[in-house]
Automatic annotation (TrEMBL):
Keywords noted in UniProt: ATP-binding, Helicase, Hydrolase, Nucleotide-binding
Cited SUPFAM superfamilies: P-loop containing nucleoside triphosphate hydrolases
Pfam family for this entry, one: Helicase_C
Name of the protein described by the UniProt record: DEAD/DEAH box helicase
Domain Helicase ATP-binding: 37-196
Lineage: Archaea, Methanobacteriati, Methanobacteriota, Thermococci, Thermococcales
This protein's record includes keyword ATP-binding: yes
Alphabetical list of PROSITE patterns matching this protein: HELICASE_ATP_BIND_1, HELICASE_CTER
Positions of transmembrane segments: none
Annotated SMART domains: DEXDc, HELICc
Example of a GO MF term: catalytic activity, acting on DNA
UniProt domain Helicase C-terminal: residue ranges: 382-541
InterPro entries per the UniProt record, alphabetical: DEXDc_RapA, Helicase_ATP-bd, Helicase_C-like, NOV_C, P-loop_NTPase, SNF2-like_sf, SNF2/RAD54-like_C, SNF2_N
């Protein structure tokens, strides 16, 4: 059963995923779909484009494990953002059960790549600097996480283009945001997966391409799809908007800041250096006082004051930093958005005149007077205390590293004074883009094991699994709802066991209330809910994240960016922009949905219809694998690592009234290499797949049975029809349709052909027949057509007595005498001269004719028994004279004598013949040789 267990589980995505249950992996149908596609198609060229939180990492590693177990991976590369290296290391160790090689320094690359490891992990920004060294390796699989960060025209993109250009390489891309609103950029990423696509594609052909890539190059599933497939997997996620009163000093600061920023922009073009500086100041001030004061200080205390250079790159900065899309920061050379903003300030602060600088100085002085009072941070401490006391972990997200450091510095004191919570700065976990790998690993471990609070920037959080927390606080209100979705996605994901909460905090200032009333309240389904949640004495606007966005906002024709929203806020013109924001999000969403269509739940169910079944019964699994094993999953995975194959066996079962055939449906590529095999059991017209094969066979084999070699020819044509209708055409056929696109310059996926092969027969036999089969090789039974009426079976007592040499001497002598007579007569009829030499040689009969000579050892048994026992001298003689040596076993002497002839009995190239109607018929039977005090040779 070991080989069958392996093939059933290895090639059934449901069972394969289930076999990792003890690794904390919960089987989900959308994961089965991904693995199923990777099993059936070569090469694996796939973008897993699921929403945040649907387990893309696990899906990629399960594919890697499958390919590895099939012997298709010797060396694999995993390319990730730097912040995710440690997370991937742990996941590789957990799922692949191997320690990967982490490459985190350029000087290590060549040395580490020579190490005998299977999996290597490197950050994309390190890898892009060593393209030649990395692409010169013979990779079998490349996995790229957060592939959307490799945008067209960047070093990252050029590196991946070189890395993936071999179209036979297995490549898996992961991204929750594969399309960022730019079709050209998205098509470039598709071209990385399929190098046979042309550089230029017309809009008409784009639409055709997008539809053909759904379920082929690209798999995209949403939380809604997963819930339709599984029932309610994702628990409720609650959204809250909280308004915080401010002190007089805080209010004066924001009022003066608003006046100063308005003066900066009122006579300026929308994309002038001063307007850009004003937008940046406003954005930083909405985050924290610390960020605002650092920005103002950098501007007004500059030694470059009065120095003006030609303004350049303004619209490029706006596009990359303030766009209303996914993953706003796209500038490769910066670790955090703070660095990009500092560069802009340094480039444009010389455009400010003395009067403008004086106004900003006054704002800076007012900011310094605020002192230790921070109303926003105080209310946030109330939220944190409320949830920590409920045993929940909390994440504070901020856009800026400056704000992160500010929070870490002030929050512990506020928590201690207001709530008596003793939480030092070192007790709070932190993540930001400038951290080293070992620091990231330490902070994530701290958050998982002992810390209740994490403060993180967006850059640092991208791709991280942070569902150990159930609360997110947006320290500043994101201008783009997309950022809210991404932040919430860090905790609202598979394996989240609690209901989650996401808070966004607004100050009771004119600017923040303007944003709340004219944007958030208009585009979101949120209602005022006084007195619920943390006791902060202020209204909380609450909503359900699954139904957060409103669709009934009046549309405007124009689209809008974050830059334009902030500028409108400075000018006091934010009213009416809700429609533009909704329209922008709709257009962006529509672009994404058109280019990356979601795989519907119904389509996924149809694809998986052949493999979906009940979860295996653990007790049955234990019984099949081994009795009383503490961890059957570990034992199953050990079986998966074996590489045994079976050509075909037959199992004869005593008293079973029926027959079973196990067929392998074999998938071969055009080069004749096996891609996939799928077992199907047919029993009396019923079909079983997956674990039900193992369950049904194990039920039948509770009876006594005997295993023999060889299966009968023939096939079940319904098996082929089943596979073609429910696997080949729905899945492989879709890939073949993709290849028919007229724009493609060549094929990417290999053609697949299907072959049906019977590998196992289980047949029931009567008790009488089974008693013969149990003692007589089946091959002999078949040749002679034996049945219970013409066979004298040995009793158990006879066999035991024979083995102990307790059979009465007269019976031995009588059977040997009759056997000698039968053999000598047989040889005479064939023209041999025969001589009885039993009294003087170490064998019984010398037969010779025409220069040919045979030395024959004769053994005789009254019952049907194929057993020959030799003394040590007889054994040595047989070895010395093997080219002439034969053993003749004459059995069933009491009924109809059966003669079996064995030539070279102790050699690997021995031959066995059965005498039928005076002729020799060669049979393939196993021979067991046991050495006791004598040499006992037994046909089995």
């Amino acid at each position: 059963m070991r080989w069958l267990i392996r093939d059933v589980i290895l090639h059934n995505p449901h069972l394969f995923v289930y076999s990792y249950s003890d690794k904390g992996i919960i089987p989900f149908k959308h994961q089965f779909q991904t693995l199923y596609h990777a099993m059936l198609i070569r090469p694996v060229r796939l973008m897993i484009a699921d929403e945040i939180g649907l387990g893309k990492t696990i899906q990629a590693l399960l594919i890697a494990k499958y390919l590895d177990l099939r012997g298709e991976i010797k060396k694999a590369l995993i390319v990730v953002p730097k912040v995710l290296r440690e997370q991937w290391r742990e996941e590789v160790k957990r799922i692949l059960e191997e320690a990967p090689e982490i490459i985190d320094r350029g000087i290590e690359i060549e040395r580490k790549l020579r190490r005998p490891r299977k999996y290597f992990i490197i950050s994309i920004d390190l890898a892009k600097r060593y393209t030649k060294e990395i692409t010169s390796q013979d990779w079998d699989l490349v996995i790229v996480d957060e592939v959307h960060n490799a945008t067209l025209g960047t070093q990252r993109y050029e590196f991946l283009k070189e890395l993936t250009k071999n179209k036979n390489l297995n490549v898996i891309f992961l991204s929750a945001t594969p399309h960022r609103g730019n079709n050209k950029d998205y098509l470039a990423r598709l071209r990385l997966l399929d190098p046979t696509l042309p550089e230029e594609i017309s809009p008409t052909n784009e639409k055709k391409l997008y539809m053909r890539t759904r379920g082929t190059l690209v798999l995209r599933r949403t939380k809604k799809v997963v819930n339709e497939l599984e029932g309610e997997v994702f628990k409720k996620c609650h959204f809250g908007a909280i308004v915080v009163d401010v002190s007089d000093e805080e209010r004066k600061f924001f009022e003066e800041l608003n006046r100063a920023l308005f003066e900066l922009v009122k006579d300026q073009a929308d994309y002038s250096p001063l307007t850009l500086l004003a937008v940046i100041i406003r954005k930083r001030a909405s985050s924290s006082y610390e960020a605002a004061l650092k920005t103002l200080t950098r501007i007004v205390e500059s030694s470059h004051r009065g120095r003006k250079e030609k303004a350049k790159g303004i619209e490029e900065y706006v596009e990359k930093i303030f766009r209303m899309g996914y993953e706003e920061l796209e500038i490769e050379e910066f670790e955090e958005i703070d660095d990009a903003i500092h560069k802009i300030i340094d480039e444009y602060r010389g455009f400010l005149d003395e009067r403008q600088l004086e106004k900003l100085k006054r704002v800076l002085e007012l900011g310094k007077k605020i002192g230790n009072k921070d109303s926003k941070l105080e209310v946030i401490s109330d939220i944190i205390a409320y949830h920590i006391r409920k045993g929940e972990k909390v994440i504070i997200f901020t856009e800026f590293r400056d704000t992160l450091e500010y929070i870490l510095g002030k929050l512990p004191g506020i928590l201690r004074e207001r709530h008596g919570i003793l939480l030092e700065s070192d007790d709070i976990a932190k993540l930001h883009g400038g951290m080293k790998s070992e620091e990231i690993e330490r902070e994530i471990k701290k958050f998982h094991e002992r810390s209740d609070l994490l403060v993180s920037t967006d850059v640092a959080s991208e791709g991280l699994n942070l569902h150990v927390a159930s609360v997110v606080i947006n320290y500043e209100a994101p201008w783009s709802p997309i950022k809210l979705e991404q932040r919430v996605g860090r905790i609202w994901r598979l394996n989240q066991r609690k209901e989650t909460n996401a808070y966004t905090v607004f100050l009771a200032t004119e600017t923040d209330l303007d944003v709340l009333n004219n944007l958030y309240k208009k585009i979101m389904n949120i209602k005022e809910a006084i007195g619920s949640g943390p006791i902060i004495g202020k209204p909380i606007f609450k909503g359900d994240f699954e139904n957060l966005w409103r669709e009934d906002v009046e549309e405007r024709n124009e689209e809008v960016s974050e830059y334009e929203l902030i500028l409108a806020s400075i000018k006091g013109q934010l009213k009416g922009y809700a429609g533009a924001l909704v329209r922008t999000l709709r257009i962006l969403k529509q672009k994404v949905e058109n280019a990356v269509p979601v795989n519907p739940a119904g389509s996924i169910k149809r694809e998986l219809s052949l493999i979906l079944e009940d979860t295996p019964d653990i007790e049955v699994l234990k019984g099949i694998v081994e009795k009383n094993v503490p961890n059957p999953f570990r034992l199953v995975r050990a079986l998966l690592r074996e590489n045994s194959k079976i050509e075909g066996i037959q199992v004869l079962v005593k008293g079973y009234n029926g027959s079973m055939d196990v067929y392998y449906v074999l998938f071969y590529d055009e080069e004749g290499r096996e891609v996939y095999r799928y077992p199907i059991l047919v029993e009396n017209g019923r079909y079983f797949i997956g674990f039900n094969i193992l369950r049904r066979i194990s039920e039948v084999l509770t009876k006594e049975y005997k295993i023999v070699k060889g299966v009968s020819k023939g096939t079940d044509y319904k098996v082929r029809t089943l596979i073609m209708d429910r696997v080949y055409f729905p899945i492989i056929g879709r890939y073949m349709d993709y290849e028919k696109l007229s724009i493609k310059r060549d094929r990417l996926f290999k053609r697949i052909k299907v072959e049906i092969k019977k590998v196992l027969e289980i047949k029931g036999v009567s008790e009488g027949e089974f008693e013969i089969i149990k003692r007589v090789p089946v091959e002999i039974v078949k040749v002679l057509g034996l049945d219970f009426t013409n066979v004298e079976l040995p009793t158990e007592e006879y066999i035991k007595a024979l083995e102990r040499n307790f059979v009465p001497l007269n019976k031995i002598l009588e059977s040997e005498r009759k056997a000698m007579e039968i053999v000598m007569e047989l040889e005479k009829t064939r023209g041999y001269n025969v001589e009885d030499v039993s009294l003087r040689e170490h064998y019984d009969i010398r037969a010779f004719k025409d220069g040919e000579e045979k030395y024959i050892e004769v053994k005789g048994h009254y019952p049907m028994l194929f057993l020959a026992e030799l003394t040590e001298k007889e054994y040595k003689f047989a070895l010395k004279n093997e080219d002439k040596y034969w053993i003749y076993i004459v059995s069933n002497i009491a009924r109809e004598p059966v003669i079996v002839k064995i030539y070279k009995p102790f050699s690997q190239d021995r031959k066995v013949f059965i005498v039928k109607n005076g002729e020799d018929v060669e049979v393939k039977v196993d021979i067991e040789v046991n050495k006791k005090a004598r040499h006992v040779l037994k046909l089995g």
